[in-house]
Specification:
By secondary structure, the chain is of the alpha/beta class. It has 13 helices and 15 strands. About 35% of the residues lie in helices and about 15% in strands. The longest helix has 22 residues.
């Protein structure tokens, strides 16, 4: 992989309005020869825009000879520890590392997954198909007209739709009414409505297929003990983030010790070290690196190859975001060779597949990676013009 480099010059941001408070935000980083790379920086969990931080970091890379996505850190004087401590900065760096890897793979005339494997001396050829699970939650979040139906019947309908379209695993986030801390011990009353949604979704999914449950860190240690038993009785396949495993590691360790279900989480973590720590110190069974926060697709690959050989089925990438992130996540996932499926937020926008050029292709619950170098696709400028905006910082 010698003499593969990229010298960024131009930076342009773009966003597409999806529904409610959700916009898919991405950018294109290009050189003087119009070679470009793309990265997504959508984040509904940050209270400030990531774009100005991306622009500041990219300015320090302009005109430089970039030979690796790690150069994003090098030219900005950053360490993994800096990024573990600053979520906004980690999001900007992850987007830039994705865009840089995309551009370098194009320069090498390789699909991104093949470029990543070649960089790391990984033998063999990766598949161009990646198994997905259907996150039905975002399809039931408020749209432009306000709140939508979050009843058990609505969860049933969305889960049934996913199963009919070939998915074998779905995920829901049902505990709208709950927010920690909770008074007393045992199952809080507020969890009952969420459990009704879980039971309805599981009935639709069926006993021979899997339902994951995401708790969005809405519980505390004592309530999480009781909730785990209820979710196991309801047939859940995993128990995701009853508490934040990064911010409240010791509580999550104790929950994990008593949990009747596999525990998953850490979607906001950055870098190999934090995910390795959570697995090796028995805090989680499954880590969920998100390409937008963990350091981009190359870092996600490194997490997978670090953990999967010794802990099979310990990595499942988190991706409740736009199609650019799903594409980058699919490249990383197939590069490290997963045992667990990749997340896909289904039915959030019926026109979603048209955002990408070429169109996003999902067949029977599998993502089909497009042919071509780099990511193999880009956000269609016509869709940005129709549904969003473009700007520079």
């Amino acid at each position: 992989m010698s003499e593969i480099w990229f010298s960024p010059k131009e930076l342009e941001f773009q966003s597409i309005h999806v529904r409610g408070n959700t916009d898919w935000v991405s950018f294109v980083l290009s050189d003087a020869d119009d070679l470009y790379g793309s990265g997504e920086i959508t984040s509904t969990q940050l209270d400030r825009s990531v774009a100005p931080v991306v622009a500041r970091l990219a300015n320090r890379m302009r005109g430089e000879k970039i030979e690796s996505d790690d150069d994003v850190l090098r030219f900005n004087g950053l360490t993994p520890a800096d990024l573990e401590a600053d979520r906004l900065l980690a999001t900007a760096v992850s987007g830039l590392r994705c865009a840089t890897a995309d551009a370098l793979a194009k320069r090498a005339n390789l699909p991104l997954h093949a470029y990543i494997r070649a960089q790391h001396g990984h033998d063999g050829t990766a598949s161009n198909r990646v198994r997905l699970y259907a996150n039905i939650n975002r399809s039931m979040l408020p749209d432009d007209r306000g709140p939508v139906d979050r009843s058990p019947d609505s969860f049933t309908k969305m889960a049934e739709r996913a199963m009919k379209e070939g998915f074998t695993t779905a995920k829901c986030a049902p505990f709208d009414e709950c927010n920690a801390p909770h008074e007393g011990n045992g199952l809080p009353y507020c969890a009952e409505a969420g459990l009704e949604r879980v039971r309805a979704a599981k009935q639709a999914v069926g006993s021979d297929r899997t339902l994951y449950v995401d708790c969005h860190s809405r519980f505390d240690m004592n309530s999480a003990f009781a909730l785990g038993d209820e979710l196991a009785a309801a047939g859940a396949g995993w128990y995701e983030e009853p508490v934040d495993p990064v911010g409240d590691t010791e509580a999550m360790r104790q929950i994990h010790e008593k949990s009747p279900l596999p525990n998953a989480g850490a979607e906001m973590g950055y870098g190999v070290a934090i995910f390795k720590r959570l697995i090796e110190e028995d805090v989680l069974d499954i880590v969920m690196p998100d390409v937008k926060f963990c350091g981009g697709p190359v870092e996600a690959y490194r997490i997978g190859v670090e953990l999967e050989p010794g802990h099979p089925g310990s990595v499942s990438m988190h991706c409740p975001s736009g199609p650019l992130s799903l594409l980058a996540s699919a490249h990383a996932t197939t590069a490290f060779g997963p045992q667990l499926p990749l997340e896909h937020a289904v039915y959030e926008a019926e026109w979603r597949r048209e955002v990408m050029e070429p169109f996003e292709q999902i067949e029977s619950g599998e993502f089909v990676i497009p042919d071509g170098p780099g990511l193999g696709g880009r956000v269609d400028p016509a869709m940005v013009a129709m549904r969003g905006r473009r700007w520079e910082e």
